[in-house]
Each structure stands twice: as C-alpha cells, then as structure tokens.
Amino acid sequence: MQTKLPKDFFWGAATASYQVEGGIESCDWAEAARHGRVPTCGIACDHYNKYREDFDLAVELGHTAHRFSLEWARIEPEEGEFDYEAIEHYRQVLVALKDRGLEPIMTLWHFTLPLWFTERGGFEHKDSPQMFARYAKFVAEQLGSEVTHITTMNEPNVFGSNGWLRGSWPPFKRFALTDLVSITNSGNNFEDKAEKGIRNLFLYRQVMKNLARAHNAAYDAMKPVASHIQVSVVKHVIVFDANWNPFNKIKAAIANYAWTTVFMNRTKRHLDIVGLNYYFYTRFGDHRQWRKTDMDWNFAPERIYDALIRLSKFRVPVFVSEAGLADHDDSDRPEYITKQVEATMQAIQDGVDVRGHLYWSLMDNYEWALGFEKQFGLIKVHYEDGLKREIRPSAWVYKDLIEKYSRVE
Ligand code: BGC
Question: How far apart are CA 259 and CA 161, in angstroms?
Fold first, then answer.
C-alpha cells in the first residue's frame, strides 16, 4: 500500500555551518583546534562560498527542502554586537534556497559557540538562556519573514554528554563513570586529556537544565516577532532496548527516560514541531555480532521506526531532521537509506504525524572530533582535489525513493 503523505511533506538533506562552511575562527571548536585538542576544520567544504552550486545539486537529486544552520559566532561575534553582513549572507542563503524551490529548515545553533559566550561560562552560566534568547530574537527580527521552520538547537543531549560526561568535546569535562553506559561514539583520542571530576556530573545537570530553559526562552522571544514560524528543537533519540532479562529492561527504561523523556518534558510546551535525529539502536543483554557502519555504530536503519514512535508520545508533529551513516565506499548506503525511508513510511501509516525526512548529510564534512575521515555525504567531497563534488550512487537511490513516495495515486 502506498503511504499517504501529509500535504507539503518535505524531502532533503541536512548540513551544519561549522561542518561545511569553512573560515569560522571565533568559536570554541576553532579555539580547541588551535590548542590541538580537536582536528582543524579550516576551509571545510567552502560551502560558505559554494552554497549555490551545492543547492543546485540538491535540486538535481530531487530534494524539496534543506536543513542548514547559522553560525552564532558570525552573527554575534562580541556580546550584544551583531554583524549585519553575516545576516545578509544568510539572507542570501535563504533566497538561494527559495529560488530553487527548497524549503529552508534553519537551525540557530548547531554545537559551536561564540568565544565570548564560552568565556562567560557558556551554558553553565545561569543567564545563558537569556543570552541565547537575545540572539534568537535578533535572528527572528532579521530573517523571520524569510523562513517558516526555525530549530533553536541541535541535539542538546549529545552536546551536554560529550562536553561534560565523556569529555571529548569542548569544554572537555569528564565524569569517568559515564563509560559504564555507552552513549555516543565521538572519538576517544582526547578524553584522557579532559578535566576529570565528580563535579562534572552536577555541571552536566545544570547545563541540561539551562539548555531546556534556553530553548523555551528563545521560543518565547521569537514568537511575538514572527508568529508564523514553526519552532522546533532537534532531538537525538537513542533507541534503548533490552533482551528478555528484567534487569536489562529496567536499564533500558531508565536510559530512555534520562536521554529523551527528561528534555522533552521540559520543552514540549514550547514546541510547534520536533526534529528527530536517529543514529543509534542499543539492546542491553544482546550478544549479537552487529554489522557496523564506518562509525562502528550498529547498522539498524529500520529502528528509526521505534525512535519515531517514542518521539510521537510527546504529542507534537515530528520531522526526521537527520538520519544516515558514514560509509566511505557507498556500499551500504543504498540499503541503509531504503530501510530508513521505508520504516519512516511505516510509522506514518501507523499514525505518527511525520512532516518531512532529511538525510544526514548532503555532502561529506567535518565530523567533529573525528575530523574529515568519516563520510556521511550523498555527495562526496574531494578534499585533495579542489573540493570537487561528486554525486554518490546512493543519492540516486534516495531520489527514486522520494519520487516513489511522493507520487499521488
Ligand atoms: C550531528 C551532526 C553529526 C552527525 C553524525 C549528529 O549527531 O547533528 O553534526 O555530524 O550526527 O555524527
């Protein structure tokens, strides 16, 4: 049976500013790279200059939407001082998307933070929600008329756990007991150099609360300025499952609660729609030898179904804001994308209100602490050859799926 998609269902891919734009120096990740703690990002894919050509490729691949992020450090390089040239750049990005019939899904903040903000304590600071809301309000005033979908933040739980529990991302604070539960694989080269201590667990809790407050404050600040916008948060959902063992079932229930429910309960009254980022399926007590992606993550694209069901419990419409895999030779991606899309269609048939599907990522990019080696792109980027773009075969598989499911019978 053909799935009946909601009107205006959108299809496409996602990127994030620091991972693709290049030339961003005034943020915490660039500072960490200068200290040798993470790989240097440099010019990345030079998407800052090549965005029009990249959007042309997205159109060729059948996309109808594109998710991208603004770089906060470009827009507010000093506290309370806004850069109108940076805003103008992003206005042009929005124009370029709309000219090509691509619906913009715009994220305000995707992991990298302005240096002035981190120097003031970042999201540990009690006033950080208001600082974030001031930025959000400025963006809504400047760009609100050009856009419908605004995501406040990307994956708060990944940001918090990698920064304050694993210690692999800025600000490199570590609570070693975290290793008892494997959360996300973000590279382990730098964890030993992290600042360790039990205090980091409390800081993590504080940061998570401030992130929820920051989202809520940004929502309240943007809505009066641009009442038409659909505000979302992008939530990373890990599907924690268990074998028959009751102890493992309890463990999975606690993990799901801690990873997803807590943040969603804090923000669900300030959401018009929520984005799902799906990458992980973990089954406690399972000794199966999993097939792995290049990130060493379990190959379980069909479990996006469980993640969609989980997120739909919070009674807000959902869109798939990211899902995909690192696969350098594109041998597994066609199957992965097909299963991921089919499972999403199944969730819709079973009643989940899904409004769109975005693959991660449009092109290869800077994979955070792992540098440029891991390749998630529908489009391969030749870093050694003038940043030339090459469409991968799986991108056409995705195009066929888009056409198949968009057909009205
Ligand atoms: C993030 C992306 C990242 C991707 C693959 C998500 O956690 O939003 O920035 O590149 O997963 O790891």
Answer: 10
Assign domain 10-406 to its CATH architecture.
Alpha-Beta Barrel (3.20)
Cis peptide before 171 (omega within 30 of 0): yes
The end-to-end CA distance of the chain, in Å, is 10
Nearest CA to 22 out of 44, 50, 40 is that of 44
Ligand 1 contact, 369 CB (< 6 A): no
Cα(19) to ligand 1 centroid in Å equals 9
Going by alpha carbons, the residue nearest to atom 5 of ligand 1 is: 367
Asked if residue 16 has its Cβ within 6 Å of ligand 1, the reply is: yes
CA 118 to chain centre: 20
Q: Which two tokens stand for residue 51?
A: 């965005």
Q: pLDDT per position in the chain (409 positions), as tens?
A: 677 898 899 999 999 999 999 999 999 999 999 999 999 999 999 999 999 999 999 999 999 999 999 999 999 999 999 999 999 999 999 999 999 999 999 999 999 999 999 999 999 999 999 999 999 999 999 999 999 999 999 999 999 999 999 899 999 999 877 766 555 555 556 677 789 899 999 999 999 999 999 999 999 999 999 999 999 999 999 999 999 999 999 999 999 999 999 999 999 999 999 999 999 999 999 989 999 999 999 999 999 999 999 999 999 999 999 999 999 999 999 999 999 999 999 999 999 999 999 999 999 999 999 999 999 999 999 999 999 999 999 999 999 999 999 976 5
Q: For the purposes of burial, counting CB atoms within 10 Å of the CB of 100, is it exposed (0-12), middle (13-18) or buried (19 or more)?
A: middle
Q: How far apart are CA 133 and CA 116, in angstroms?
A: 16
Beta-strand (E) ranges in 245-353? 274-284, 318-323
Q: Is 151 in the pocket of ligand 1 (CB under 6 A)?
A: no
Question: Hey, where are the domains in the chain?
Answer: 10-406
As a whole number of angstroms, the distance between CA 238 and CA 279 comes to: 7
Q: How far apart are CA 154 and CA 112, in angstroms?
A: 10
How many whole angstroms from 295 Cα to the centroid of ligand 1?
Answer: 11
CB-based burial label for 77 (10 Å; 0-12, 13-18, 19+):
middle
CA distances from 187 to 155, 216, 295 (A): 17, 31, 9
Query: DSSP assignment, residue 257?
Result: I
- Please name the residue that has the structure tokens 């080269």: 189
